[in-house]
Automatic annotation (TrEMBL):
A motif (RDXXRA motif of the pArg binding pocket involved in allosteric regulation) lies at residues 338-343. ATP binds at residues 27-31, 92, 126, 177-181, 208-213. GO terms for cellular component: extracellular space. It comes from Aquibacillus halophilus. The keyword ATP-binding applies. This is Protein-arginine kinase. SUPFAM superfamilies: Glutamine synthetase/guanido kinase (SSF55931). It catalyses: L-arginyl-[protein] + ATP = N(omega)-phospho-L-arginyl-[protein] + ADP + H(+). Keywords: Allosteric enzyme, ATP-binding, Kinase, Nucleotide-binding, Transferase.
Length: 354
């Protein structure tokens, strides 16, 4: 897949697939932080060190394939325009840190966009592997295999007592962040999610917004991930996360059932009002879009809405972000211009299903 396809197609191929518990768990991600041995970490490295790593990845992995992840494309950040970087962030293929701070950074991306290896971000290597739905164990197995494949040509910075060495001490040990993206509208509407977050934090997990650290939980979408990386195995970390996510799935389903039983008319009104806003608005801001998309997704999951597939909502979540809107328009847009174009694209996209 070419760079232009990564940038121009709103929804990644893997996102079109259904996964276990996908009515609540939108995606699963395993991220591994790794560094080259005997090489200064990116935060203190000289430009020649970083350039050498970029050249290594381009020579060794560009257009290579691993298992089902074909035609890995290596992209240098210096070759991208700011809007193009923003699009890749909105698709979760690179991090905001890589887009904003790593001129000598790059990314190795698989054709189906399920694998993304960020180069010279906070660490030399940040491996990311995505799965639809709730698939932590499968994602971990695949991440181990991908890590082994990279290690065939790379000597990692590793200490027998501390584990994998990383730029940030909070990643030392396994270097792993396991996370799931969850849609929790009912727990939010019943105001239970705010009471759950402190309890989740006490278990060594963290709750963030859709774009990770420092981001807002737009559209009732929350990212749940591990905080502890040292002193526990990857399997143990994943088991703990799996247990908490199972409880959240159970509680979200109960909350949805209660809403339908006790507030059916109000819930139905909220969902169809949001559907109408998406179908008929001429100007719409990103926060309102996220709220309406969340309501409509809930309406699909509980059977109120039958003529809109969830894949369109996944697509609109990305397509209506500022970077994609400006990429679509082929020019920089003011916030007001983005709000107008956003409304227009949503109307046209929803009409295709009628």
């Amino acid at each position: 897949m070419s760079l232009q396809q990564f940038i121009n197609e709103a929804i990644s191929p893997w996102m079109k697939e259904e996964g276990p518990d996908s009515d609540i768990v939108m995606s699963t991600r395993i991220r591994l932080a790794r560094n080259f041995d005997q090489t200064p970490f990116p935060i203190i490295a000289k430009s020649q060190n970083l350039e050498k790593i970029l050249d290594f990845f381009q020579q060794e992995y560009h257009h290579q394939s691993f298992n089902n992840y074909h035609d890995l494309e290596f992209v240098k950040m210096s070759d991208l325009q700011p809007i193009e970087k923003r699009v890749l962030v909105e698709k979760h293929l690179i991090s905001p840190h890589l887009a904003e701070n790593a001129e000598l950074g790059g990314a190795l991306i698989s054709k189906n966009e399920q694998v993304s290896v960020m180069v010279n971000e906070e660490d030399h290597i940040r491996v990311q592997l995505y799965f639809p739905g709730f698939q932590l164990e499968e994602a971990l197995d695949q991440a181990f295999e991908l890590d082994d494949w990279l290690e065939e040509k790379i000597n990692y910075a590793f200490d027998e007592k501390k584990g994998y060495l990383t730029s940030c001490p909070t990643n030392v040990g396994t270097g792993m962040r396991a996370s799931v993206m969850m849609h929790l509208p009912a727990l939010t509407l019943t105001q239970k999610v705010n009471r759950m977050i402190p309890a989740i934090n006490q278990l060594g997990l963290v709750v963030r917004g859709i774009y990770g650290e420092g981001s807002e939980a737009l559209g009732n979408i929350f990212q749940i991930s591990n905080q502890i990386t040292l002193g526990r195995s990857e399997r143990d970390i994943v088991e703990d996360l799996q247990s908490v996510v199972n409880k959240l799935v159970e509680q979200e389903r109960k909350a949805r059932h209660i809403l339908v039983e006790q507030s059916e008319l109000q819930l139905e009104d909220r969902i169809f009002r949001s559907c109408g806003v998406l179908q008929y608005s001429r100007i719409i801001e990103s926060k309102e879009t996220a709220k309406c998309l969340s309501d409509v997704r809930l309406g699909i999951d509980i059977g109120y809405i039958e003529n809109i597939p969830k894949t369109i909502l996944n697509e609109l979540m990305v397509l209506t972000q500022p970077g994609f809107l400006q990429q679509y328009a082929k020019k920089t847009l003011s916030p007001h211009e983005r709000d107008i174009l956003r409304a227009s694209l949503i109307r046209e996209r929803l009409k295709l299903e009628k």
